[in-house]
């Protein structure tokens, strides 16, 4: 056997051992892997119903606030949690179906790390005014129910009107990427554009929120927010009892007060010849929002027949009387003596605003881009029959009967209340969703909650466990030493033969 044939195996073994050692040393470098998505659950306990929204965001957050998207949603059957006052167990039980959906929608491995929050709005604010003890009992009941699930329960409580408005504003601007967006270069960027205002119309309250640089004549209306490394100064105001349901109740109370308590009253905002029977207590005067309209003496169980007259002018005149546009102690006010800077820039109107304009378009084929458009549309709608409204909107009688009143309400609220004129009115966009997520305060609330959720550290992944890695490295070193020894032995043997010759 010649020298070359004896050398080849040792050289190959040396090369393999060297490559193996180099690969192991290179592999020892820790490789970063992105952690799984984080999830969060927000229950929006509104005055008329409760909705559950599940959000998700990457665990490595952007400038301290998670990049949140909507994962799924669920709408609780029945009324809002405030409707279960006096009915023990009802509020908690009503949430079960949606919470079971959350158990399925969120990976089991993330359950214990998923923050769970419930925010109650104007319905519970009203219940607290009427019966603070019962309000607390209902909250405790739903809290106990939520704590029975394997999520990380963080809080339940009644949001202030200002917080509700501010969170709605955050939602709107987040969905429109006014805070942050993902660039083509694969990084989160500040788009550097103006924020837009938020107009929310719920069942029991309404909110207006927008960024302003005007001097604040009432600091209680101003808030400083910080998101994605930027600071924002916003004006926000919530009007309790000016949500859709409570406005309609106040309008009924006003009509009864002006016409007197009697078996039948006329309603200029109801379609002509439409009628229904109501009870003075449960349907009108049991709410704290109608307290100022209450007769000195009345029978809450008394039935009153309400007959529609379909009179646009009388309807809008009565709607205006629900507002107070006088007694302003500031340089300018919206209504009820509340300070408001001049509206500026673009706005998004959602919740009941969206549905009202949707019905207006269905009934009149009119796009609402000016105050005059909504006046003309309301005039047409108020003359329609209940059957025509129901057919063209595909809505039940309970909703169809109020479209004339609501058309006039949002016209008065936006123009005489918030002072949108011919120029600024066209800047209002009526929306239900944006960027695949429902518009409302819940997403803004979750964005705020994620500031308190620590970003998960990037995972460290090694190709081998430390023990296994060390053992294989030792084996490759032994192979290297053995191959070097073999080569040395072959060399010495060959040298000795050469010397003998």
Automatic annotation (TrEMBL):
Q: Does the keyword Methyltransferase apply?
A: no
Which Gene3D superfamilies does the annotation name?
Answer: 3.30.420.40, Exopolyphosphatase. Domain 2 (3.30.420.150)
Its Gene Ontology cellular component terms are: plasma membrane
Q: Which residues cross the membrane?
A: 6-26, 467-491
Record GO terms (molecular function) = ATP binding; GDP phosphatase activity; ribonucleoside triphosphate phosphatase activity; UDP phosphatase activity
Active-site residue numbers = 164
User: Where do the annotations place ATP binding?
Assistant: 203-207
Annotated Pfam families = GDA1_CD39 (PF01150)
Q: Which InterPro entries match?
A: GDA1_CD39_NTPase
Please list the GO biological process terms of this entry.
Answer: nucleoside diphosphate catabolic process
Describe the family membership recorded for this protein in Swiss-Prot or TrEMBL.
Answer: Belongs to the GDA1/CD39 NTPase family.
What is the protein name for this chain?
Ectonucleoside triphosphate diphosphohydrolase 2a, tandem duplicate 1
Give the source lineage, highest ranks first: Eukaryota, Metazoa, Chordata, Craniata, Vertebrata
């Amino acid at each position: 056997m010649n020298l070359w044939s004896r050398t080849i195996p040792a050289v190959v073994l040396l090369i393999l051992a060297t490559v193996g050692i180099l690969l192991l040393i290179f592999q020892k470098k820790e490789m970063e892997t992105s952690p799984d998505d984080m999830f969060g659950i927000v229950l929006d306990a509104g005055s008329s119903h409760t909705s559950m929204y599940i959000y998700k965001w990457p665990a490595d957050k952007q400038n301290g606030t998670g990049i949140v998207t909507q994962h799924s949603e669920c709408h609780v059957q029945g009324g809002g949690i405030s409707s279960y006052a006096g009915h023990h167990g009802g509020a908690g039980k009503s949430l079960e179906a949606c919470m079971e959906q959350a158990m399925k929608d969120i990976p089991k491995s993330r359950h214990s790390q998923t923050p769970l929050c419930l925010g109650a709005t104007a319905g519970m604010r009203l219940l607290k005014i009427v019966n603070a003890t019962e309000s607390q009992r209902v909250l405790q009941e739903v809290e106990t129910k939520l704590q029975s699930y394997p999520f990380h329960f963080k809080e339940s409580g009644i949001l202030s009107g200002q917080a509700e408005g501010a969170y709605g504003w955050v939602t709107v601007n987040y969905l429109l990427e006014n805070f942050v967006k993902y660039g083509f270069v694969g990084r989160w960027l500040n788009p550097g554009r103006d924020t837009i205002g938020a107009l929310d119309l719920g069942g029991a309250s309404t909110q207006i929120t927008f960024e302003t640089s005007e001097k604040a004549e009432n600091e209680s209306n101003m808030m400083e927010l910080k998101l994605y490394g930027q600071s924002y100064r916003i004006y926000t105001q919530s009007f309790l009892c000016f949500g859709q349901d409570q406005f309609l109740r106040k309008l009924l109370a006003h009509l009864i007060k002006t016409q007197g308590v009697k078996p039948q009253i006329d309603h200029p905002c109801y379609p002509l010849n439409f009628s229904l029977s109501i009870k003075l207590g449960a349907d009108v005067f049991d709410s704290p929002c109608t307290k100022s309209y209450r007769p000195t003496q009345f029978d809450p169980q008394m039935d009153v027949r309400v007959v529609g007259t379909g009179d646009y002018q009388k309807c809008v005149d009565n709607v205006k009387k629900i507002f107070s546009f006088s007694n302003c102690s500031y340089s300018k006010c919206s209504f009820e003596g509340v300070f408001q800077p001049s509206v500026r820039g673009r706005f998004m109107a959602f919740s009941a605003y969206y549905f009202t304009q949707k019905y207006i378009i269905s009934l009149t084929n009119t796009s609402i881009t000016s105050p005059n458009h909504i006046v003309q549309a309301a005039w047409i709608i108020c003359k329609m029959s209940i059957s025509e409204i129901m057919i063209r909107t595909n809505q039940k009688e309970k909703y169809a009967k109020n479209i004339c009143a609501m058309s006039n309400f949002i016209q008065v609220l936006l123009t005489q209340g918030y002072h949108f004129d011919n120029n600024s009115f066209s800047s209002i966009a009526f929306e239900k969703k944006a960027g695949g997520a429902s518009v409302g305060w819940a997403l803004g609330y979750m964005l705020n909650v994620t500031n308190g959720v620590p970003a998960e550290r990037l995972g460290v992944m090694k190709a081998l466990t430390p023990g296994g890695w060390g053992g294989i490295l030792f084996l490759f070193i032994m192979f290297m030493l053995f191959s070097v020894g073999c080569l040395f032995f072959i060399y010495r043997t060959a040298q000795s033969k050469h010397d003998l010759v």
